[in-house]
Task: inverse folding
């Protein structure tokens, strides 16, 4: 796996604040709407249920948190956490339109030091966040800490495929679809970071090892889209 020095957390935060106004539109265009299916799968594997206290780390503009809200209903609650305040502002606006009656807490915070008590969440999700934290083991340890015993977390993210031909396709897609599309919206530099971030991201099997090292009792990785995407499902 290529070793690249990760950008500083402050730089990553600045990127996500800058892309906030176009983030949702770009996700739809770049994934041809498929990201919505992957997020539904992540929420399903989190086993969120009616009345649960649920968590979405690196919540961005709120997609996964809002899906969790539909699962937990008015008797449950959702906490969405992100360090990009511009993304959180959009998430709050979307909640008022889509889930005004569900108790949802939006917190500005660090995935490496969650401002949350131990053993309080019944389930959790994380979308496109683990690849961007500066310390993956620490992030997993924090998720473990705040989950109740037996609770699950489903972590969705981009991956580098194992198959060589899929790696070539992914490189072509990032260079010829993702970056030019982002450039048309004035976000070329902000989206150019994706390729190096995928290169240094642990593979599915490596993520499983890291999860066990963090203390999770069970870890399963589900590759999607020929290995270009994946969902890591962990049980405390």
Result:
């Amino acid at each position: 796996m290529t070793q690249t020095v990760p950008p500083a957390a402050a730089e990553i935060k600045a990127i996500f604040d800058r892309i906030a106004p176009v983030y949702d539109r770009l996700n739809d265009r770049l994934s041809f709407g498929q990201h919505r299916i992957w997020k539904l799968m992540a929420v399903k594997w989190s086993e969120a249920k009616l009345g649960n206290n649920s968590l979405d780390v690196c919540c961005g503009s709120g997609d996964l948190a809002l899906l969790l809200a539909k699962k937990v209903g008015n008797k449950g609650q959702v906490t969405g956490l992100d360090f990009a305040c511009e993304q959180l502002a959009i998430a709050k606006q979307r909640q008022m339109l889509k889930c005004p009656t569900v108790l949802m807490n939006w917190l500005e915070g660090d995935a490496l030091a969650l401002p949350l008590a131990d053993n309080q969440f019944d389930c959790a999700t994380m979308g496109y966040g683990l690849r961007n934290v500066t310390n993956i083991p620490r992030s997993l340890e924090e998720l473990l800490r705040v989950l109740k015993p037996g609770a699950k977390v489903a972590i969705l993210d981009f991956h580098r495929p194992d198959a060589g031909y899929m790696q070539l396709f992914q490189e072509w897609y990032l260079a010829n679809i993702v970056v030019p599309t982002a450039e048309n919206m004035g976000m070329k530099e902000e989206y150019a970071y994706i390729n190096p971030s995928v290169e240094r991201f642990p593979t599915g099997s490596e993520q499983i090892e890291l999860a066990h090292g963090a203390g999770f009792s069970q870890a399963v990785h589900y590759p999607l889209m020929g290995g270009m995407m994946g969902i890591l499902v962990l049980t405390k």
Summary: The radius of gyration is 17 Å. Residues 78 and 104 are 5 Å apart (CA to CA). The longest helix spans residues 164-184.
